[in-house]
Amino acid sequence: MRYVVGIDIGGTNLVVGTVAEDGSEILGLVSEPTLAERGADAVLERIAKLVRTSIAAARGKEIAGVGIGAPGPLDTARGVVLLTPNLGWTNFPLRDRLSGALGLPGTLDNDANCAIFGEWWRGAARGSNHVVGLTIGTGIGGGIVLDGEIYHGASDIAGELGHMTIDSTGRRCKCGNYGCLEAYASGPAIAARAVEGIEAGAETSLPAYVQDDLSKITAQVIYEASHDGDAYAREVVHDTAKVLGAGVANIINIFNPQVVVICGGVTLAGDQLFVPLRSEVKRRAFKPASAACRIVPGELTGTAGVYGAAAVFMRRTWGSP
Amino acid sequence: MRYVVGIDIGGTNLVVGTVAEDGSEILGLVSEPTLAERGADAVLERIAKLVRTSIAAARGKEIAGVGIGAPGPLDTARGVVLLTPNLGWTNFPLRDRLSGALGLPGTLDNDANCAIFGEWWRGAARGSNHVVGLTIGTGIGGGIVLDGEIYHGASDIAGELGHMTIDSTGRRCKCGNYGCLEAYASGPAIAARAVEGIEAGAETSLPAYVQDDLSKITAQVIYEASHDGDAYAREVVHDTAKVLGAGVANIINIFNPQVVVICGGVTLAGDQLFVPLRSEVKRRAFKPASAACRIVPGELTGTAGVYGAAAVFMRRTWGSP
Prior knowledge:
Two copies of one chain form a homodimer. By secondary structure, the first copy, chain A, is α/β, with parallel strands linked by helices. The first copy, chain A, folds into two domains: 2-119 and 302-318, Nucleotidyltransferase, domain 5; 126-297, Nucleotidyltransferase, domain 5. The first copy, chain A, is 40% helix and 23% strand. Chain A has helices at residues 40-57, 94-102, 111-122, 182-185, 187-199, 206-209, 219-227, 231-255, 271-284, 287-291, 304-318, and strands spanning 2-9, 13-20, 26-33, 62-70, 74-75, 80-84, 89-92, 106-110, 131-136, 140-146, 149-150, 259-264, 294-297. In chain A, β1 and β2 (13-20) form a beta hairpin. In chain A, α1 (40-57) crosses α2 (94-102) and α7 (219-227) packs across α8. The longest helix of chain A has 25 residues, at 231-255.
């Protein structure tokens, strides 16, 4: 059995694990803060150290290479990060630099693509041909797996599902556009919507969760208050479900997939999110298309990107999974 | 050289032509009103008659089969029209009925898929790998060609791009959803928006084009008034461009295609539509994705669906184009 190291480079955390060729196990799973502000070379060194730690923990397994997932836009063929605002990298030859440092061959793909490919390989979308997914965190990424292949488009930029306009005259998004899904349903956008409501006088126990410092309200705090029964927090979650429902209905009308998988912190909201989300999709999407599609939370919490990055290496090197 | 009869079944018109295997010519192009209200059998007879007329006009060419394009949803593998509100057909075995009547093998695919496949093969998107298109008429259809293949999704429903929500609380669409692209930018929706403005007091010469019978205002009348310099008609076209721009920007962010091709009557508006449309897309879409993509009107006016339906037959039977 061969093993591949999967590397998931996030704006906040690095996650690395050594993945068996058949996906049956992940060894030496390690994580550290990215500390992007220390510069690309320092991040690269920290990644290389994590990879060595993971390989050591895998104890003598045959390591075939490394699969890297990173925020884009990327040039996947050349292994270059073209630009990542979160990491501050421009035209950075990430794959070859890391390959060189480790003495192992590597591949590079987009982080959201990797997460959804991971869920397709070993997670919530296992066994389905056409899978579209959202990764909801600081931003909203998207991954598209068609006929079991990651779809990259003409220049590796396909799948920017978070920047789908669902309200063309709506909230301003960080990307400069108006009414993007991300402007409503990313973690920070969910928090911002809640704070706006509180500032406008909504009755809620949310301030008590953050010692009255509204700047500390995060999406996670809102899910907690919602689970505790706070009516306003539930309303915020419900509004999030409606907005996501419009986005997921679009995905279903466009792609007619078997599975839409939703990954990230938002899954913590559980049924309070997924029940109204599914009902909004049912209301909006074409019936035969929504009937053909499951809408599920990701299963590989924290490891989808590692599984998927390793799987990309395996696919490009060996032709499977 | 072999020939294939392409059949484009629309809610209003039937178009049939005999297409050369290399796409170099279309012979015996004939058209008739669909007259769907006379029932499926009558429409089938009329189509068979048109096919025989077209084959006769092609004078002794070797006819390999018929490619049929029809509104969906369809079951393309079984050649069955599941449901077409415009034609009133339900679970109608169109391919086999027509094949049987003509003594020729046949294939069935969605009409919008065929139109965009036609533009990919012989029209405005020739030579591009990833092409997404809109067919704008009574409704808005979509076709997705990825890696030179029509993308059908899990159950043949993919590509319902007209029912992409761009304003989640916006205009009610015939599909039951709110804020679909089709609810703003189909031919009848463009006319309805113009009439609403006139009824609200807009100053315009449009009523003069229809003898003051506002129910006679069509999108085509609006393009005509716009070309004649009517400021309000220009505003309606401009608003259409902005709405289409939001939809096309979504398509570009999602698919990162080389070409977005826009077919149908709306292309009559010419630069008055396409110039603001392209600028709206530029404002909304990710720069590297919009820079990689041409937005063009279809070139095969009236014949895209015929070319594409024939090409679908050729592809499934001979593996190309």
